[in-house]
Structure formats: C-alpha cells, structure tokens
Specification:
With about 350 residues, this protein is of the alpha/beta class. It has helices spanning about 15-30, 45-55, 60-65, 85-95, 160-180, 195-210, 220-230, 240-255, 295-310, 310-325, 340-355, and strands at about 1-10, 35-40, 70-75, 100-110, 125-130, 135-145, 155-160, 185-190, 215-220, 235-240, 265, 275-280. It binds nicotinamide-adenine-dinucleotide and manganese (II) ion. Keywords: Lyase, Manganese, Metal-binding, NAD, Oxidoreductase.
Length: about 350
C-alpha cells in the first residue's frame, strides 16, 4: 500500500480548527479503503512558536520539511504579531524555498451555496486562477531610506523574469488545455506597467503557439474585476501575477459564497520539493475558538493534495462528499447555514463512509 508522508502546519487562529477537520476527512478516506495511507507529522510553528522563540519556525524549518510528500497548511496571522512577520517568517519561505511557483486556486459555486451575484447558479461560475507564486510583486526586493523623516522614500520592486513568466504561462496553458472549455484569460496591467507586464503579454503570445487548441484572451486587471462580477460564465482558466491573482482570488472566493470555501495549492510542478496545500483564508481571529470556521476550503485543498499525490479517485470521493453535504444544507454561518465546524466535518465523514459510488 502506498504511504504518503504529510507535514501538517496548522499555525494560527482558525488554522488548527480547519486542519483538524481536514485530517479527520482524510482519515475517513483512508478507512474507506482508498489503497493508501497517510503518515502525518504535526509541526507547532506559527505565532505561538514566535512568542517563545522570536521566529515563526526554526532556522532549519524548510530543511525539516524536505523529506515530506506534501505540506498541509492552516493559516498565519495573530493580532499581536505584525502581519509581515507571520507571512515572511513561515508561509513565504516555504513557497519560495521550495520554488512552488504555480499557485492553483479553483473557484466553483458549490451546490446549496448562494452567490452574492443575483441569478448565478452552480455551473455559471467554475474557474481556476493560476497565480505566479515565486516572483513579481512579492519578490521581497525594495527598501526604505530616511525612515520617519519627511523625505522618506520606500521602494517595492516587482521582478519579472523570462524564465519565471514562461514557466507559469506554460503551466496555465496546459491547465486550460486539460479543462473542457480550453479557455484562458491572461491578466495584466500592461497599459500602466510597461516593462514586466508588457513582457508578460509578449510571453503569453509566444507560449500560446504551443497550445493551438486553447482559446485565449487578455484583460487588464481592473476590467477583470468587472468581468468576473458581470459575466462570470465567460471565464474559465485565468493566469495573473502574484499580486493581481492574490486579489482576484479573494474576489472569486467571495463570489462563490465565502472565503471559507476557497482552496489553494502551492505547486512545484517539477516535483523537486513538497508542494503545499492550504485554504486561501487567513487566521480569522474574529471567529477563532467559536467552532464555526468553515472547513470546506480545507477539504477542497485536501482533495487538491490527493490529486497531486496521485490519488484522483480519493480526491473525487472527498469533493463528492463535500457537495452532498453543502447540497443538503449542512453549512456554517458564513455561507448562510447554522452548522458548526464539527457538524459539517462529521457530515462529510459520514458521506465518505456511505459513498459506494465513485463519481
Ligand atoms: P481572513 O481570511 O482571516 O478573514 C476575512 C473574513 O473572512 C473574516 O471575517 C473571517 O471571519 C472570514 N473567514 C475567513 N475564513 C473563514 C472560514 N474558514 N470560515 C468562516 N469565515 C471565514 O483575513 P483577515 O481578517 O484579513 O486576516 C486575518 C489574519 O490572517 C491577518 O493576520 C492576515 O495577515 C492573515 N492572513 C493570512 C493568510 C494565510 O495564512 N495564507 C491569508 C490571508 C490573511
Ligand atoms: Mn490573499
């Protein structure tokens, strides 16, 4: 039997609540007899670790993660620790250290969930946003001079490389090609950002030649928010820079009902290192400890993890269970239900146990 080594990093806020729910669903899948086993190791890194050690993870943190098949990540963020510390101290070193350059963010309106967009039904909104995850606006280059003085200057440099843009473009075209509609929208702000993003447009055109069966178009990011809101049916696969896709995917999550249902996978397509799977949302300290965090985003990213590990049947079984449960109205308050995290999780595990068809 195939055994996969999983590193679980629940971290902060509702992270531990949703990761516990996700692990419970994965265990139900294992028991259901998928022909695989998960060997899970828990890491206590995050803001609590920071309060004790002044770092979010040990210096050899990424080294410790190297031998795992995948990383299952909760969220970072605490009221008393600066956001740039939690982000740059844990999540980004993993993404960048393992060159997880493709951040894949599916959005779909699930059965039973009502979109804030009037008249939009399941099927009308079914997108995958591919986010460039290794460079661009989050490459970490910049600086501040004359700190605190009236003449203070700060730079935040976005870096785009031919290698970096070409590989994410190829990934996005290939993904678009694998989906039924074979449709890709390339997002930039190349009217205003004339260097990196004009190169982005040029490379999109070059790579498109390798994928003659993919229909593609270009959008400016501001106009894209309008298209997502007014014509959701016109979109399928979307590729955008680190910053733009970060913003668009929060919007996508909200249009699909809640950030609580939006998953993401940080993938190293070359499989040199472990990839990382996490809900898009943050630590949500406004609802931490209340038992009402929506675990659906975490179930969905667990399905992405199973798919990546080579267990597509278990991934489909998990998503089928989730859709059965949301369709049956068992949902947390963020998507209009009254159920707790535990009730949704128990219902999903029950649906996994009861499912005898593989969709
Ligand atoms: P957030 O995603 O934590 O929460 C935004 C809103 O959505 C809140 O009202 C929250 O209650 C709700 N929400 C989020 N996830 C939910 C879920 N699973 N179920 C129900 N409701 C949910 O974003 P924020 O409030 O801007 O940030 C809180 C902290 O999280 C900050 O410190 C921020 O830096 C951090 N953050 C971390 C990540 C990450 O770890 N990847 C991502 C975003 C924000
Ligand atoms: Mn974000």
């Amino acid at each position: 039997m195939q055994t996969y080594r999983i590193a679980a990093i629940p971290a902060d806020g509702i992270g531990p609540e949703v990761i516990a729910a996700g692990l419970q669903a994965l265990e139900a899948l294992e028991r259901r007899g998928g022909g695989f086993r998960l060997d899970v190791t828990q890491f206590d890194w995050g803001s609590d670790y920071y309060r004790k050690h002044s770092v979010m993870m040990p210096a050899d943190g990424t080294e410790q993660l190297k031998g795992f098949d995948a990383i299952f990540f909760g969220a970072v963020g605490a009221p008393d620790v600066p956001d740039h510390v939690t982000l740059w101290g844990l999540r980004l070193p993993i993404c960048q250290g393992f060159d997880q350059y493709a951040n894949v963010r599916p959005t779909k309106l699930l059965p039973g969930i009502v979109s804030p967009l009037a008249g939009v039904k399941p099927g009308d909104l079914d997108w995958v946003i591919v986010r460039e995850n290794s460079e661009g606006e989050y490459s970490g280059h910049g600086g501040r001079a004359h700190r605190g003085l009236p003449e203070e200057v700060a730079t935040e440099v976005a870096i785009f490389t031919r290698v970096g843009v070409t590989r994410i473009m190829r990934y996005a075209f290939r993904l678009a090609q694998s989906r039924p509609r074979k449709l890709l929208t390339v997002v930039t702000k190349s009217n205003a950002q004339r260097f990196g993003l004009v190169m982005w447009d040029e490379i999109a055109a070059e790579v498109s030649v390798e994928f003659p069966d993919v229909t593609w178009d270009k959008m400016l990011v501001d106009a894209m928010t309008v298209r997502m809101t007014l014509k959701p049916q016109s979109l399928d696969t979307i590729v955008a820079t680190n910053l733009h896709a970060d913003i668009l995917s929060d919007l996508a999550g909200a249009l699909a009902g809640s950030l609580g249902v939006a998953p993401t996978a940080n993938i190293d397509p070359e499989r040199r290192f472990p990839s990382m799977f996490e809900p898009i949302h943050g630590s949500a300290f406004d609802i931490t400890g209340k038992g009402i965090a929506n675990p659906v985003a975490t179930f969905w990213t667990a399905a992405q993890m199973l798919e990546h590990l080579g267990q597509p049947q278990a991934a489909r079984r998990l998503m089928h269970a989730v859709e059965t449960v949301t369709g049956g109205g068992v949902m947390t308050p963020d998507v209009g239900g009254t159920a707790t995290t535990k009730e949704v999780t128990d219902a999903v595990c029950e649906a996994i146990r009861g499912s005898n068809i593989v969709p």
